[in-house]
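WARN retry 2 of 3 for item q-0093 after timeout on previous attempt; input resubmitted unchanged.
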Amino acid sequence: TLHVLLDHQGKVLKIQVAVSSGSSVLDDAAINILRIASPFPAFSKEMRDKYDQLMITRTWKFRSG
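OK item q-0093 returned
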C-alpha cells in the first residue's frame, strides 16, 4: 500500500510505502510504476478551487501468471 501526494499539476511530490509487501523488489516496482506513469492529469478548475494537493492511497497487488 502506497501513499502518493500529487500537486495540482499532477506531479508526484511524495511516495510513501504505508504497508510493505515484505519484498523491497516489489515495493520498489510499485514506486517505479508510479514514477513512470507521472505526471498525472492536472486538477480541474473546480478541484483546484478546493485543493492544491491530493493524497491518494493505493494498494498494489502483484500476482504470478
